[in-house]
Amino acid sequence: xxxxxxxxxxxxxxxxxxxxxxxxxxxxxxxxxxxxxxxxxxxxxxxxxxxxxxxxxxxxxxxxxxxxxxxxxxxxxxxxxxxxxxxxxxxxxxxxxxxxxxxxxxxxxxxxxxxxxxxxxxxxxxxxxxxxxxxxxxxxxxxxxxxxxxxxxxxxxxxxxxxxxxxxxxxxxxxxxxxxxxxxxxxxxxxxxxxxxxxxxxxxxxxxxxxxxxxxxxxxxxxxxxxxxxxxxxxxxxxxxxxxxxxxxxxxxxxxxxxxxxxxxxxxxxxxxxxxxxxxxxxxxxxxxxxxxxxxxxxxxxxxxxxxxxxxxxxxxxxxxxxxxxxxxxxxxxxxxxxxxxxxxxxxxxxxxxxxxxxxxxxxxxxxxxxxxxxxxxxxxxxxxxxxxxxxxxxxxxxxxxxxxxxxxxxxxxxxxxx
Length: 419
Ligand code: NAD
What we know:
Layout: H1 9-25, H2 29-35, E1 40-49, E2 55-66, E3 72-78, H3 84-100, E4 107-112, H4 121-134, E5 144-148, H5 154-168, H6 189-207, E6 216-220, H7 224-235, E7 239-244, E8 249-251, H8 258-268, E9 278-280, H9 282-286, E10 292-295, E11 314-316, H10 325-333, E12 337-339, H11 341-344, H12 347-361, H13 367-392, H14 396-415
Parallel strand pairs: 3-4, 3-5, 6-7, 6-10, 10-11, 11-12
Antiparallel strand pairs: 1-2, 2-4, 7-8, 8-9
Helix pairs in contact: 1-3, 1-14, 2-14, 3-14, 4-5, 6-7, 6-12, 6-13, 12-13, 13-14
Bound molecules: nicotinamide-adenine-dinucleotide.
Nicotinamide-adenine-dinucleotide binds next to helix 7.
């Protein structure tokens, strides 16, 4: 059985990325050492009475990697594969992401070991409410603000908001983001991560002289991030030739009709059997010849085992951690541009920040205001990363970590070490 508490390779890999950026920046070693350790990690055991009367105990985590720049911020993942190590790495990436887009948050992440598709709505609600109740002391608008991630959605965020509010004895909308619109959600939040991926990809394509209109793209993972990115790319004239879900992918070299694929998925719950495309495996999909590859599923998809067979010109990481360090080296040698997760998918947390701001002000923006502000932040963050990359002659990933580290370390240093 997998040790869910073991120190694993994902956080170690994350630290290697941190170390590489810290070396180039030549940072203060003592201050940097603070950031190599999470601020706080909490494990909770979640007893739930299932529909058949049986009592099951689920395990949930929350890691607050850094609060140097503000409240911890980051999503909650429901999956059988969740481990503490994974959550720790995801929390550290959130610290970087929030600093890169320069919003006043630290980094956090949560996870519950469960398979939502095997739970009834009633059981899913009980898991969510009990997990929230167990985290009550360490969540809050000024403390730690969760959001959706893999297998969690607006409904789950609404239950979190309600549970927290019932304990607080008043409605606290700003404790969580990614909520439904009628409960303090923000216009544009659901689409924000996918929209952000497309904004940053367009910037990178422009930098490297590739037109988006008339190009081809492959998207792994057709959930919130992947389906929106595919839809928006399609809208601006990029041909989406393959997409996938956890089971497998569908491929049509003449282009997929994304609206039609979305309708099919809604009806059939999986892409398999879609009639106007050939079936491919998730591994085959990554190796399809295309201009843009958007991994938008889970970690460790582009590895030493397949990196040399990737044919895309630009990889824009919608998912967190889809590329391993060894794979990065191979991609760099092949001249494939990688727009890293901590920049490419930061649109989600940026609009989560807008949601938090709107909730706290009780004043809500139009979708146009949200999308304009998102565009402004992402374009300027991309430019800052690109400038760093040129100045130090490093790939975009190292440059992104450098920008993030610089901002967080400056805050730690200015605040000082309290003793
Ligand atoms: P989601 O649950 O809506 O969709 C995930 C998609 O990936 C689904 O199509 C699923 O079938 C597929 N998938 C799951 N496991 C897979 C596997 N092992 N192999 C291939 N496909 C698999 O999740 P999402 O919110 O779209 O998140 C996708 C990725 O984007 C994650 O890495 C997440 O951390 C990252 N991300 C999400 C947000 C957000 O706002 N939702 C923000 C930033 C980053």
